[in-house]
Amino acid sequence: MTGRKVLMNFEVTPSSHTLEAYLARGGYQALAKALRGMKPGEVTQEIVDSGLQGRGGAAFPAGRKWQVIDPHDGQPHYLVANADEGEPGTFKDRWVLEHSPHTLLESMLIASYALGVRHGFIYIRGEFDLPWRRITAAVEEAYAAGWFGENILGTGFACDVFVFRGAGAYVCGEASSLLSSIEGSRGYPRNRPPRLTVKGLFQRPTVVNNVETLSNLAWIIGNGAAAFKEIGTPKSPGTRLISVSGHIARPGVYEVELGYPWAKFLHDECGGVSCNRDLKAVIPGGISSQVLTSRDAKVLTPHDVETMILDHDALWQAGSSLGSGGMIVIADGTCMVSLLRVMLRFYHHESCGQCTPCRDGMGWLHRIIDRILAGQGRPEDIELMYRISKANDGTTICGLGDAAGYATVAMLDRFRDEFDYCIEHKRSKYDGNLECRPSS
Amino acid sequence: MPTIFIDGRPVEADEDQTVMQAARAAGIEIPHFCWHPALSVPGNCRICMVEVEGKGTDIACNMPVKAGMKVFTNSEEVVTHRKAILQLTLLNHPVDCGICDKAGECTLQDYHYRYNGEPSVSIDAKVPATKFHELSDRIVLDNERCILCSRCVRFTREVSGSNGLGIEHRADHSLVRSSEDGAFRNDAYSDNVIDLCPVGALLSRRFLYRSRVWYLESTPSVCPGCERGCSINLWHRREDWKLKSVATRENTRIARVTPLENPAVNGPWICNKGRDLADLFERPRAIEARVDGRTTTLETAVAAARRLIASATRPVALVSSWGSNEELEAFTRHLGSRFTSFVKPDHLPLEGEVVEDGLLIRADKNPNGRRARELFGDPAPAFPPGTGVVLCWGEGFDPALLPAGAKLIVVGSFADDATDRADVLLPVSTQLERDGHYTNFEGVITGFTACLPRPPGVADAEALFGLLAAEGAA
């Protein structure tokens, strides 16, 4: 077990996602508690007190984002659940949408109550099929049972929710381009200022939260902020859904209490590296978080005494982040140059093309890495890749451009020898291998 | 009014201004591609990075001013950023300035020389794209030169309202394309995107490969296409680049027409009709004076006209609504009392032309109707019985309407049915060959200047009216 549970606290069965099952395990009681016994400001305060951090990647305190909204300023406010889970390696929101959609809906109702939201949106990525069917079915169930619409629970509170399907663009997972997409325009990120909490969807104050972030609310309101703070570490309370993939024996979505030892998680819970290989590196939170070598992360052996803990602060100190919770495990014998090529192909393909550094920089990086792997690399190409990555740092409209640069720099920093080898010998040190093969 | 400091210099700014606006108002240039004073702020070119003390770098075009902020437009970090961005902007740009119409007035070219000046560090192939994409029969698009600043797209959305352009695909294979409904082809203001384009991606097919821009110079003028009277620049061959032997016709042509920014009239835009002014002026001219169908000298024709006017009963004048303020006043001064005068429209809307819209185009297709009507009133032309002479000034008169027995004097620049039928034809100069002013429909007076030589044997109407009245006319 990976510590205490907030979301995965029930047994998944073929019907555990239904409203009936959700009510049977105490669902929608937190909503009743909030609507009947709390003022909107008290709900927000509870979230602030809980110390809940965003689970989408930046780990920004959710309550502080909410506090910018004044529910009584007389204009419409919008709440958007970001279910456009596109970060490679990440598939944890999918678990919530498939197995516990009502947790999200109840939490969105609570948030809507706190923020004065009449209309909420769930922006779900277009490639999701089962999650989309599950969440739309859940919305229908909830409407039929009177959890949405007018006069919810006889309290006079009214709220509607819309499920909006994206069209498969990575950039639409970025909050502002997600809003543009809902508005019907091209999914281009917007410049800040103004922040979305000031002028967001349809130019109105908007809170965009990740699905997992929102889904925590029902538990927090139901059990209280103090109970939530007891879980996890003082600076990072709660749990994280972590989707583990790559060269690992038991990939999947795990709920991990923050502060859990990383080595124990990888080697015991996830069964360790597959194919009897040693662990080479880990990308902790989706490919846009910086890669860590197993030595840096101190997760090489199952019981590394000094292992890092899974916690936002610990990973920031190590020069990476828990990001979106998409953990990619990389076994020995993997070619990091090829891996970077896969990443850069993705960034090039998914760059929205709006601002210059990312639009032209990602294509350039992609062409350079292709050339290096084709045996035509030059020693100065490494320096050039650093330069292009740094030209993205802080110069792009949205955070995805910067993140692509950080990820590239981390790969170059930590596996420089492989890049040098590939350029010098005109071939990859590991034959461009990305598969996990048993060591001979 | 908050005071901010740009490169140490105190600058007064308005509360709702951005650093870019405040800097421009103070005459400090911050480089920019995508930003345009009349369009929204997309912040996509990233070249306008400035450093704010204590806050790092960000784009000036989207940075609200804050009292006391210290902005640096040339700090080391800014200069480094700018160079890096310019390298990226030029990465997939073909740098085919040698065959690009924009060369010489290209923002990218200017900024490269001013802020970067280094050769490309890339050895990788550039991304190929469409080199000659027909956006409409007026405009071609070179996607390789395009830096995706989105000015043209925003123009069709925010100004012309046709929503005719958009961007397809993503990343460095993004392409500007027109919408499927063909709205861009019908956009009466589409040519403005050519001027808006900071590089040579959007090109006028009219002007395509016609001339290098440094062979040309511009003369401020007024568009005579409608009563809006937009301020324009007429581009024609510079004196020192005049062609000596080949294609000398180019020396006296209007090579292109661009808007001249005038907040009181047209802002920074003009319509497509204005771009085609050369066609209006290149129609067959009336340059020879004629009396009774025989070519003669101007002096003889003036004397013949003067005799007709002096002896005629009930002479009627059809006054041009294309005459300048000065000419209209000269006519009033010298001939006003002798004639019963009516204002006539020189031009009516052509078939297929936008008659009127909410932006610039007005229904009256003559530039000085307002001043003419102020002087001569607004009744429709009518010929009282016994009209002996009709003096027709300008175009648009159907000679079939001439009363029986009346003589026709035409004061005109272009050959038409009336000049063919005229008993006396007095050729006068066009707007391109003289100075003057028009009063537009809102009463704004704008001047134009001669830019081409007056053909020999052609008079200026202002002087001509004095001659017609010189003796015995009263």
What does this structure look like?
The complex is a heterodimer of chains A (440) and B (474). Chain A is an alpha/beta fold and 440 residues long. In chain A, 43% of the residues lie in helices and 15% in strands. In chain A, the strands form 3 sheets. A 5-stranded mixed β-sheet of chain A has the order 3-4-2-1-5, with helices on both faces. A 5-stranded mixed β-sheet of chain A has the order 7-6-12-9-10. A two-stranded antiparallel ribbon of chain A has the order 8-11. In chain A, a hairpin with a 4-residue loop joins strand 3 and strand 4 (157-165). In chain A, helix 5 (93-99) crosses helix 6 (101-115), helix 5 (93-99) crosses helix 7 and helix 15 runs antiparallel to helix 16. The mean pLDDT of chain A is 95. By secondary structure, chain B is of the alpha+beta class. In chain B, 22% of the residues lie in helices and 19% in strands. Chain B is built from 12 helices and 22 strands. Chain B has helices spanning 19-25, 76-91, 107-116, 151-158, 192-196, 272-275, 277-281, 298-311, 325-335, 369-376, 417-421, 461-469; strands spanning 3-6, 9-12, 49-52, 56-59, 70-72, 133-134, 139-141, 165-168, 175-178, 202-204, 216-222, 231-237, 256-259, 289-291, 294-296, 316-320, 340-344, 389-393, 407-412, 424-427, 436-439, 445-448. In chain B, the strands form 6 sheets. A 7-stranded mixed β-sheet of chain B has the order 15-14-20-19-18-16-17. Chain B is elongated. The mean pLDDT of chain B is 94.
Summarize the helix and strand pattern of chain A as letters: HHHHEHHEHEEHEHHEEEHEEHEHEHHHHH
> Major sheet of chain B: size, sense and barrel closure?
7 strands, mixed
Question: Tally of extended strands of chain B?
Answer: 22
Largest interface: A-B, 35 and 37 residues
Question: What value does the average pLDDT of chain B take?
Answer: 94
Instruction: Give the radius of gyration of chain B.
Output: 27 Å
The stretches of 5 or more residues of chain B where confidence is low (pLDDT under 50) are none
Biggest sheet strand line-up of chain A: 3-4-2-1-5
Instruction: Tell me the number of strands of chain A.
Output: 12
